[in-house]
Amino acid sequence: MHSVSNSGAIKLSSGNNINQKKDNRKHKVKITHQTPVMGQLPATTSSQPKVDTGDHGYILEDVPHLTDYIPHLPTYPNPLQDNPAYAVVKQYFVDTDDTVAQKIVVHANSPRGIHFRRAGPRQKVYFKSDDVHACIVTCGGLCPGLNTVIREIVGSLHDMYGVKRIEGIEGGYQGFYSRNTIQLTPKKVNGIHKRGGTIIGTSRGGYDNKKIVNSIQDRGINQVYIIGGDGTQKGASAIYEEVRKRGLQVAVVGIPKTIDNDIPVIDQSFGFDTAVEEAQRAINAAHVEAESNENCIGLVKLMGRNSGFIAMYATLASRDVDCCLIPESPFYLEGPGGLFEYIEKRIKENGHMVIVVAEGAGQDLVAESLRANDNKDASGNKLLDDVGLWLSQKIKDHFKKQTEMEINLKYIDPTYMIRAVPSNASDNVYCTLLAQSAVHGAMSGYTGFTVGPVHGRECYLPFYRITEKQNKVVITDRMWARMLSSTHQPSFLSTKDIIESFTDEAPPTQLLDDQVADNSLVTKETTIC
Ligand SMILES: Nc1ncnc2c1ncn2[C@@H]1O[C@H](COP(=O)(O)OP(=O)(O)O)[C@@H](O)[C@H]1O
Ligand SMILES: O=P(O)(O)OC[C@H]1O[C@](O)(COP(=O)(O)O)[C@@H](O)[C@@H]1O
Ligand SMILES: [Mg+2]
């Protein structure tokens, strides 16, 4: 029997008929009374996706469980059942069959589509509290909220499950085999959410799968919490595979971190909200400078290597920005419809303007005028040329040589100031949910997964789902249109470009994948709304 909650969480259970009727009426969907065929596929070998199917096109993209490769593991009652704080919560434990729909905008005849396992505490756990030896590692660039996640993992393990042995791995992945660990206790992490950075340190590079798993095995660690971006999660997935190959009872859990918000599937990544808020300060400063000086342009560079979410949201929030440039939207400088023409128009009209540029924007243009740069950082990420400095120079040169107009340009690069701040209140709550979900998942025996909200519900996601592609701003989407209409900037796109953007790759849509044939639907229903 199927039931659909308002939030999109779908429950596969033998629930009661009254609820069934209510849901059918509410959603006007004819649901036949058949039990979904769960568990049809055999337990997977490593690195194969674990997929179950049910009726009406229902698909569960499940995450691995320790019992997939270590059968007959003993279980224990969840200690939370005796926790007074949760005593009043009705149905505190998540039903093992609860799943969350990936896409919630559907048509009457839509197949039910892809679902993910709902996160949360289970009735049975696969670790005795006294036997748990957990570790936490943070990798990649800084992001507001890292300390909050650390604090909340420690708090959840300790307060909910009575776990005492928790270690921080110092300085990212390489810390597993080259550094000492830091004992993490509730006292040690008290108040760290009010500080930026990560108390256990982070790094790029230094990933050595065998050495890391040896270290996990030698230290007797059986729960590994790995906080980091796409590179980190790829590494976490390989650690899980190696742990599984060795047959270890070790839960490997990823917590996705990216200030750029470029991780797909999840609603948003932690620290993004804080970054957008903090970016307002830089934009305000640029606006104050621009307004107070004659013919002045305030130029702000914001983070966003491949995705322009911070720039787009900061622009939309501010309303003082006249032009926002992001990696997903190519632009050009010279000629009709170009950036210089628009700047000239705005300065003539208004006497000043504010431009926001994401760090990955216009890299093709920058590369044309500077020597080719193939430099990479320690993790193998391409090092970008500074588009902010390049654009400042280009604008100055153009106005000096080509026009009568004297302009004044103030350039602000707040990158490290933004990502070094502590997370704001909303990110703190979000980090708490992520950390609690991660801990519940590991204690329940799930492994090889990452956590995150899908339509507001915390889910367990297979690693491949979040590492296979990057989340990008869809420039044929309503959100980008909202942004364009707030700045009045040119779109820099011809009709031909728009048509090509559809044919190159169909934009993501809320509708299920096999309904994406008609582009008129796609433009109406997209992921960000
Ligand atoms: N494909 C990969 N496989 C395994 N480890 C990786 C991979 N890409 C990056 N890493 C490791 O993950 C860590 C963080 O990666 P990085 O790209 O710097 O940041 P992020 O995790 O934020 O993307 C580094 O220690 C790096 O060596
Ligand atoms: O200077 P660093 O430490 O290499 O980091 C710079 C990069 O990190 C970022 O802040 C993004 O990092 P994450 O997506 O991993 O959070 C980018 O915007 C920027 O290019
Ligand atoms: Mg990355």
UniProtKB/TrEMBL annotation:
Its EC number is 2.7.1.11. Residues 135-440 form the Phosphofructokinase domain. Substrate binds at residues 258-260, 303-305, 359, 416-419. Gene3D superfamilies: 3.40.50.450. Keywords: Allosteric enzyme, ATP-binding, Cytoplasm, Glycolysis, Kinase, Magnesium, Metal-binding, Nucleotide-binding, Transferase. Pathway: Carbohydrate degradation; glycolysis; D-glyceraldehyde 3-phosphate and glycerone phosphate from D-glucose: step 3/4. It catalyses: beta-D-fructose 6-phosphate + ATP = beta-D-fructose 1,6-bisphosphate + ADP + H(+). GO terms for biological process: fructose 6-phosphate metabolic process. SUPFAM superfamilies: Phosphofructokinase. Homotetramer. Catalyzes the phosphorylation of D-fructose 6-phosphate to fructose 1,6-bisphosphate by ATP, the first committing step of glycolysis. This is ATP-dependent 6-phosphofructokinase. It comes from Ambrosia artemisiifolia. The gene is PFK.
